[in-house]
């Protein structure tokens, strides 16, 4: 077939753009945030107990990009929960375990713990996986902390309800570690076996979400799991394994991404039922999968760059094709490699020489990488994900709504 291609306009305009730089919603919608989860949103709880299984989060290069010091966050900078707090005009959430002796904080508290599972330790102990747990501070333990903290801030039901009606409760991401324990911290479990954990994990998340509603929460954001088939630690552990095939477009492992989507499907269904049960609440699902799979599908759209617009005439139909040329976005070559790590493989992830360990190195430009340390994401990646969740299409129903 003959296709007549006519370049009508070459660079009619150069537009410097930054994806998702739409206006932030007005601050003041929520006056406080309470967060539950794992290392994806731990702002310092695990470090407060000494970070025994992963002391490196207490040292640079963790924190090097934004805080210029290690705060206990498992990233080079901010986490999604930090960007949510920023967008609301609220301070970063202090970790609960440091708050006990510290100042009283009314604008929010973080109960998330690095390594935390949705299910209680007993579930893993019963399956001989107990010794692999990083922490026993599971979701229900974090809920217990919240109840204790709550009694110091309000006493009567009326007083608590009045306070919590302007609070945002974020439950997750949580559940990722329930799968890391059998799939990543040990070999010998198959994806099929671990699939049987998913309904219990979802039940634990729903139990905690319901319990928070019973405590007075009305605005709840519940994120799903990330595409674990794109995570360097997983890619390293399963390279050459017969459990998976590599997707030629993204370079990620299809079977593991399908696993994440299975978890997310069950979560979405369970949240639907929860909304019916508690019609007075606003229960939002945050699609972390969708917000991050974009990086692997079209890395060129993330970062500062230029639009190149081409008008192509095919038959008599004019097609406008817009190319984005990224100057400092994620690079295709570094999409699946950890920025900080101990080398020794195609993904710069070495479980015996993790990020921060002697001999590990840090990439020159952290903003070109999605993965910070092979498991957790960079400040740059979390920023894009947060923008997609806060302003964009990745929260349902949307996070922002008019105050009635
Ligand atoms: C969820 O709550 C129900 C009712 O309290 C309980 O029976 C069940 O064991 C809980 N499930 C999990 C996974 O925590
Ligand atoms: C994958 O390999 C393991 C042993 O290496 C074997 O037991 C298993 O049956 C294989 N699975 C498939 C689907 O081929
Ligand atoms: C485009 O042109 C080709 C032949 O030149 C023709 O076969 C085709 O049907 C046309 N397509 C459209 C959409 O008009």
TrEMBL record:
Gene3D superfamilies: SGNH hydrolase. Keywords: Glycoprotein, Hydrolase, Signal. InterPro entries: GDSL, SGNH_hydro_sf, SGNH_plant_lipase-like. It comes from the Eukaryota. One of its GO terms (molecular function) is hydrolase activity, acting on ester bonds. Belongs to the 'GDSL' lipolytic enzyme family. This is Uncharacterized protein. It comes from Trapa natans.
């Amino acid at each position: 077939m003959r296709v007549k291609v006519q370049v009508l306009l070459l660079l009619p305009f150069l537009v410097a753009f930054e994806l998702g730089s739409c206006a932030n919603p007005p601050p003041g919608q929520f006056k406080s945030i309470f967060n539950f989860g794992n290392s994806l949103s731990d702002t310092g709880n695990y470090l407060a107990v000494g970070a025994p299984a992963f002391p490196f989060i207490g040292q640079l290069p963790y924190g090097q990009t934004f805080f210029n010091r290690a705060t206990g966050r498992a990233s080079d900078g901010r986490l999604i929960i930090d960007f949510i707090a920023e967008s609301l005009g609220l301070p970063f959430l202090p970790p609960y375990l440091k708050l006990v002796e510290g100042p009283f904080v009314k604008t929010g508290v973080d109960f998330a713990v690095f390594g935390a599972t949705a299910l209680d330790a007993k579930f893993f102990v019963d399956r001989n996986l107990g010794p692999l747990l990083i922490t026993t501070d599971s979701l229900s333990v974090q809920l217990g902390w919240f109840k204790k903290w709550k009694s110091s801030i309000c006493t009567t039901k009326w007083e608590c309800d009045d306070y919590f009606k302007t609070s945002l409760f974020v439950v997750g991401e949580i559940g990722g570690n329930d799968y890391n324990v059998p799939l990543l911290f040990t070999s010998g479990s198959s994806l099929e076996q671990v699939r049987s954990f998913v309904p219990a994990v979802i039940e634990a998340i729903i139990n905690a979400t319901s319990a928070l509603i019973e405590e007075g929460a009305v605005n709840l954001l519940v994120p799903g799991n990330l595409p674990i088939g794109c995570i360097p630690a997983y890619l390293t552990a399963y390279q050459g394994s017969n459990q998976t095939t590599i997707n030629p477009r993204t370079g990620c492992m299809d079977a593991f991404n399908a696993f994440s989507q299975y978890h997310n499907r069950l979560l979405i269904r369970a949240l639907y039922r929860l909304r019916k049960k508690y019609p007075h609440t606003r229960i939002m699902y945050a699609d972390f999968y969708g917000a991050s799979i974009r990086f692997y599908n079209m890395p060129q759209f993330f970062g500062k760059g230029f639009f190149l617009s081409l008008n192509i005439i095919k038959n008599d139909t004019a097609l406008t094709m817009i190319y984005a040329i990224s100057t400092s976005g994620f690079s295709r070559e570094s999409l699946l490699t950890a920025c900080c790590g101990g080398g020794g493989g195609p993904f710069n992830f070495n479980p015996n020489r993790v990020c921060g360990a002697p001999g590990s190195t840090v990439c020159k430009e952290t903003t070109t990488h999605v993965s910070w340390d092979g498991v957790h994401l960079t400040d740059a990646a979390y920023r894009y994900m947060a923008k997609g969740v806060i302003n964009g299409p990745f929260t349902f129903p949307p996070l922002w709504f008019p105050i009635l």
